[in-house]
Write a structure and sequence with these properties.
single chain, 586 residues, alpha/beta, 10-stranded mixed β-sheet, 8-stranded mixed β-sheet, 19 helices, 22% strand
Length: 586
C-alpha cells in the first residue's frame, strides 16, 4: 500500500481551511502545509488541528513574493525524502479531491497507484449555493453547484520514482517537468478519469477581492507588474481598483447542482470554523507592509554583512546538533558558526560542523579568558547566540540584521519566543511585547531584571547584537560557569547603564524554546541572590527589600518542585543560595 502525503501552500482561507484539512486527511496519511502569512485566523485553525493530534506539519512563509512552484517543489521532495511518501498530492486549500464512483474512493485509488508514473485529475469549478449560510458545517455537506463541464486544466499526482526523473513542479502544480538546457520537458502523465478536484475558487465578493489582491501582488512581486504569467489576476485586480467586483459566481446557464458526490465515510464535524470576515483593505495594508519589509531586506542583503552565530556546547550533543539545523534553515546567506566548547569535545564538534555549508570554528571554553578568544574568532558585524534547545525561525536573522543595519540608534534587537496561548509564563521570565518595552532604555531593563529576577522570555537566542555590545561586557564570559548558563547575569550585562542604550523589540515571536533544561532551574534562586548581593545598590531601598522578599518566596517554590529536586546538583544549588541569601541586608 502506498503512503500518501498531501502538500499545500495556503493563504487567507479561514472559512474553508478546517474542511480542507479534515477532508484531505481522509485520503492522505499526512499533510505538509506552508502558511503564506495568513492573517485572518487560518493559522490559528491549523495549529488547533495540529494540537488535536492530526498528522499535520505546519511552517510559515512571510515574504510577499508568491513562490508557489519553488515552495511546492521543495515540499514534494521533503515528502518523498523526509516523510517516506510513495504518492504526493499537491493541493491548494480551495481544492478537494473527490469521486462520484462509490466503488473507487480516493484513498483506495491512491494507495494502489504505480509510483513510477505521474498522474493527473481534472479541475472542476464548484461553488456553494448559499455561501452565507451554515458556515460551521463541513463544506462538501452543504448544497453545492458546479460548472456543467470540467475545466481544461489538470492537476498532478506524483509517484516517487517519477519525481526523480522529473524533479520540478510547475506553478499551479499542473504538471511535473525537468529542464533540458533551456527547455521544459513535461513528464508523461496518465489521467484518473473517476477522480477530480472540486475547486472552490470564488467564495463571495469580499473573499474575491482579498484573493485578487494577494494573488496579483504576490505574482507581480515575483515576476514584475509586466508579467504575462497568471494575467487573469491583473484583470481582476484592475476591476477591484476601479471599484467593481470580479465575477464570483457561475452563470445560471453554465451551472448544475451536485448530486452524486461520494462523501467520506462517517460525518465530518468542524470544531474551529466560524466563518471568516474578509477585509480587502486589511489585506492590502498587510501586503504593503510586507513588501516594504522585503524591500528593506533586499537593500541589506546586497551589503553582505557577516553574522557570527555562537553555539555553546554544554554537553548534550543531540541538542547541539539540532541547534546547527536551526542555523542551516536561516534565509540569511552571510553567516559563520562559532562553536563554544565548554566540555572539551572539539573533534566531535568539528565533525558535525563539517556538514554545514558555512564557515565555522571551534573555540575552547574550559578555562577563563575565552571571551577574548571568542572576540578574535567571531568576525561578524552582528552576533547571534543560539543556546541548545532553542530553534530560530528561518527568517529571524534576516529580519533582525535588517533592523540593525538600517537603524543605527539600536544597540541590539530582541524577540519573544512563540508559545501556545494558554501556556503559563514562568515566574523568572517576562515578555518584551509590552507597551513600555517597544523601544526601551537598557538601564531601565537592567533594573527590572534585577528587581524582578526575570529575564526576557526570548532569552539570549532571541537577540541579535552589535559586536560593540559584547565587547563592552567581555562577550558574556561571566554569564557562563562550569557549563551552566545564567540568563539573569547575561541580561544584566547586556542591558547596560548608559542612558542612551536602546533596545528594539520585535512584536512577533521569532523562535521557540523546544527544550526547557530542568538542570538550570535550581540555580535560578542562587543566581538572583548573587546579583542582588553584587548589584543591589542600583535599586532603591524599598525596591530592594521587595525583591529580597520575592526571592525568598520564589526559592521556596523552586526547591519544592519535583523536577528541580531530581537534578543532580540540587543540593549544591540550594546550599549556595542559602549562603548568599544570608548575606543580603534585611
Amino acid at each position: 500500500m502506498n503512503k500518501i502525503i498531501a502538500v499545500s501552500l495556503i493563504a487567507d482561507c479561514a472559512d474553508i481551511i478546517e474542511s480542507f484539512v479534515r477532508h484531505t486527511l481522509t485520503y492522505a496519511d499526512e499533510m505538509l502545509v506552508i502558511d503564506h502569512a495568513a492573517a485572518d485566523g487560518t493559522g490559528d485553525v491549523l495549529h488547533a488541528l495540529c494540537e488535536e493530534g492530526l498528522p499535520l506539519c505546519i511552517e510559515r512563509y512571510e515574504a510577499a513574493e508568491l513562490c508557489h512552484d519553488e515552495i511546492m517543489t521543495n515540499l514534494m521532495h521533503r515528502a518523498f525524502g523526509e516523510h517516506g511518501a510513495d504518492i504526493v498530492v499537491p493541493v491548494d486549500a480551495d481544492e478537494f479531491l473527490v469521486t462520484e464512483d462509490a466503488a473507487k474512493p480516493c484513498r483506495a485509488v491512491l494507495q494502489r497507484l504505480r509510483t513510477d508514473v505521474t498522474f493527473y485529475a481534472w479541475h472542476w469549478m464548484y461553488e456553494l449555493e448559499e455561501p452565507e449560510k451554515d458556515a460551521g458545517e463541513f463544506l462538501l455537506s452543504r448544497p453545492l453547484r458546479r460548472k456543467k463541464r470540467h475545466e481544461p486544466v489538470q492537476k498532478a499526482i506524483i509517484g516517487r520514482e517519477a519525481a526523480r526523473s522529473y524533479p520540478l513542479l510547475a506553478q499551479g502544480t499542473h504538471y511535473l517537468y525537468r529542464m533540458e538546457g533551456e527547455e521544459r520537458v513535461p513528464a508523461p502523465a496518465l489521467p484518473i478519469s473517476f477522480l477530480h478536484f472540486a475547486h472552490f475558487q470564488w467564495r463571495g465578493p469580499l473573499h474575491t477581492a482579498v484573493k485578487v489582491l494577494n494573488g496579483w501582488i504576490g505574482n507581480a512581486a515575483k515576476y514584475s507588474v509586466h508579467t504575462a504569467r497568471c494575467y487573469y489576476w491583473k484583470e481582476h485586480f484592475d476591476t477591484v481598483f476601479e471599484g467593481g467586483e470580479p465575477p464570483v459566481a457561475l452563470s445560471p446557464e453554465e451551472r448544475e447542482r451536485v448530486q452524486n458526490l461520494v462523501l467520506p465515510q462517517g460525518r465530518i464535524e468542524l470544531r474551529y470554523t466560524k466563518g471568516a470576515a474578509f477585509s480587502p483593505l486589511q489585506s492590502l495594508m498587510r501586503l504593503s507592509e510586507q513588501l516594504a519589509q522585503d524591500f528593506a531586506e533586499e537593500r541589506v542583503l546586497v551589503r553582505r554583512k557577516l553574522v557570527s552565530v555562537v553555539v555553546p556546547y554544554l554537553g548534550d550533543l543531540s541538542l547541539w546538533r539540532r541547534a546547527l539545523e536551526s542555523v542551516a534553515s536561516q534565509t540569511y546567506p552571510y553567516m559563520e558558526v562559532v562553536a563554544l566548547d565548554f566540555v572539551g569535545d572539539a573533534s566531535r564538534l568539528r565533525e558535525a560542523l563539517a556538514a554545514l555549508s558555512v564557515p565555522h570554528v571551534v573555540v575552547p571554553a574550559l578555562s577563563g579568558g575565552w571571551g577574548a578568544a571568542l572576540s578574535r574568532a567571531a568576525h561578524g558585524t552582528y552576533i547571534q547566540w543560539l543556546l541548545p534547545g532553542d530553534r530560530l525561525f528561518p527568517e529571524k536573522i534576516v529580519q533582525m540584521a535588517t533592523a540593525l543595519e538600517l537603524d543605527d540608534e539600536l544597540d541590539f534587537v530582541i524577540a519573544d519566543a512563540a508559545r501556545a496561548a494558554d501556556d503559563a509564563l514562568p515566574p523568572f521570565v517576562f515578555r518584551m511585547k509590552q507597551p513600555h518595552c517597544v523601544v526601551a532604555a537598557g538601564a531601565w531593563h537592567r533594573k527590572f531584571v534585577l528587581s524582578a529576577g526575570a529575564s526576557p522570555e526570548g532569552g539570549l537566542s532571541g537577540a541579535l547584537l552589535r559586536r560593540s555590545v559584547l565587547d563592552a561586557c567581555a562577550w558574556l564570559e561571566t554569564a557562563f560557569f562550569r557549563a551552566h548558563f545564567f540568563p539573569l547575569a547575561a541580561f544584566m550585562l547586556l542591558f547596560q547603564t548608559r542612558g542612551d542604550f536602546r533596545v528594539g523589540v520585535f512584536e512577533i515571536p521569532l523562535l521557540t524554546h523546544e527544550v526547557q533544561d530542568a538542570a538550570e532551574l535550581p540555580w535560578h534562586p542562587a543566581e538572583w541572590a548573587a546579583l542582588l548581593l553584587s548589584c543591589g545598590g542600583e535599586l532603591e531601598p524599598e525596591v530592594f527589600q521587595k525583591a529580597r522578599a520575592s526571592l525568598a518566596e520564589r526559592a521556596q517554590d523552586v526547591f519544592r518542585r519535583e523536577d528541580a529536586c531530581r537534578v543532580q546538583d540540587f543540593v549544591c544549588a540550594r546550599k549556595v543560595f542559602e549562603e548568599i541569601f544570608s548575606q543580603l541586608p534585611e
